[in-house]
Structures are given as C-alpha cells and as structure tokens.
Specification:
The protein has helices at residues 31-46, 68-74, 78-97, 113-119, 147-155, 157-166, 172-178, 190-202, 206-219, 224-238, 242-253, and strands at residues 7-12, 15-20, 52-57, 102-106, 109-111, 123-127, 131-133, 169-171, 183-185. With 260 residues, it is an alpha/beta fold. The chain folds into two domains: 7-202, 2-enoyl-CoA Hydratase, Chain A, domain 1, CATH 3.90.226; 206-253. The strands form two sheets. Strands 1-2-3-4-6-9 form a six-stranded mixed sheet, sandwiched between helices. The chain has a three-stranded mixed sheet with strand order 5-7-8.
Length: 260
C-alpha cells in the first residue's frame, strides 16, 4: 500500500491549499514533509490560476516541531545534520520568498519547528484553542529553522528571548497580542474564515501583491533609504502596467476591477 504524501496540494478556485498530512506524528517536520512543502510551493507558483496559498494541517495539531526520529538518525554525522536542517530551511524559505501570499490556519499545538513554520507565512489565522511556543530550551536544544532570527523580528528581542528561554506556551489571544497571529477565530470556523480571506486576496492584482510582499520582506534587511528607493522604482513600473490601468479604470467607473 502506498503511503499518503506528507503534504497534500489542491487548487480550490484560485487558492492553492497545502495540507500537512502526518497526523499520526502531529505533523512533525520530516525530510519528506519539508520536501513536500518545497514541491507544493513550486507547483502552485507554476500554475497561473493560483493567486494565494493557504497552509493548514490534518489531525489534532498544526505542527509540533521536527521529527525527532529523523533528528536522532541525522546525528550520526555532521553532514547528515546539515542536510536535515537545510531541507527545513529550504521549505520555510520557499514559503517566505514565494511571490504568492501565504496564509496559515493554525489549530491545536504550534510548537518549536511548527512555530518556525508559522513565522515563515505572511498572515496567520489561529483557532481560539491553539497554543504557540518554543520548546527547545526545555530539552537543551537550539531553534534550528530560523527561530532565533524570525522571532525577534516579529515580537521584539525581549519577548523573543523570554519565549525561547522559558519554553512557555502562549494561548491564541496572547499570540495575537504579541504579533505571532493576525486573527483569532472560533475553532469550528478556522478553515472557512481563512479560506474567505484567501479568496478575497485572490481577487487582487497579483503583481501588486507580489511586490508588496517582496518590498516589505526585503526592507527588513536594508536601510530605510534603500527600501524607499526600491519601492519608488517598483511603483513607477507598476503604474505603467496593464493591471494598474484596469484598477484605475475600475475606480473611475465605480466597479470591481478584473485583474489578470
């Protein structure tokens, strides 16, 4: 019998739905799951019908971290550990650098590598019962998929260090207050609300959405002057595009634009 793929990919209208599919392991990140995320992003980006990505999970929890069985196996050599870490980095970077907006719908536990995965997404919806945290310090470990880098950028240095040092869990409301989550919704409404949001984004100009994401993320690593120059150049190009012409025409005619 063929094993179920660790990541399911499905295009629903203009929303590419990627589903973590290792429920028996609480969707912990294996090499196969990391590779599946990369492949999923590539396939959706290659499909001109896809405008937005929605990342969700099957089972009780969103993701509880790395697959410890594979971590223990990889400890056999430095090269194996580097390869395992690289696979996870590639997956998270694929989400972060995708031209498509990436929306995460988080339920249950989102811990350690799962937290790192959620931080690579652009917008996070959380079920009201969801819990977020970093478990590495409890077991003498260090975050290995960007936790030490993305977390301070999202919540500030003091909060990031506290969360990593203490291994405390945040409920969904606290995670929202800290900046790890955008919206908290009732558990039974999570997927529907996230899908409605994704479908709304799918109606927007895909070129402007991609530019906003690229500019905002690049701006985190450059000076304000550099970011403003990059933004200005991008806006000049955009204002001469067909989609912006359609948007301006729609505004003047008081109708909804139809972007290509």
């Amino acid at each position: 019998m063929t094993a179920a793929p660790p990541v399911l990919v499905d295009l629903q209208a203009q929303v590419g739905v990627m589903t973590l599919n290792r429920p028996e392991k609480f969707n912990c990140i294996s090499r196969g799951l990391a590779d599946g995320l990369c492949a999923g992003v590539r396939s959706l980006e290659a499909n001109p019908a896809c405008r937005v990505v929605l990342l969700k999970a099957n089972g009780k929890h969103f993701c509880t971290g790395a697959d410890l069985d594979e971590v223990l196996e990889a400890r056999a050599s430095r090269a194996s550990l580097q390869s395992f870490l690289a696979a996870g980095h590639e997956a998270l970077t694929a989400l972060e650098r995708s031209r498509l907006p990436v929306i995460a719908a988080v339920h249950g536990l989102c811990l350690a590598g799962g937290l790192e995965l959620s931080m690579a997404c652009d917008v996070v919806f959380a079920a009201s019962s969801a819990r977020f945290g970093d478990q590495h310090s409890r077991y003498g470990l260090i975050p290995g998929w960007g936790g030490t880098q993305r977390l301070p950028r999202l919540v500030g240095l003091r909060r990031a260090l506290h969360l990593m040092y203490s291994a405390e869990w945040l409920d969904a409301a606290a995670a929202r207050e800290w900046g790890l989550v955008n919206l908290v919704v009732d558990d039974d409404a999570l997927i529907d609300r996230a899908m409605v949001y994704a479908q709304t984004l799918a109606t927007r100009n895909p070129e402007s959405m991609a530019a906003m994401k690229s500019l905002a993320r690049a701006g985190l690593d450059e000076s304000l002057a550099e970011g403003l120059a990059r933004e200005s150049a991008c806006v000049v190009d955009a204002l001469r595009s067909e989609n912006v012409s359609e948007g301006l025409a729609a505004f003047g005619a008081r109708r909804e634009p139809k972007f290509k």
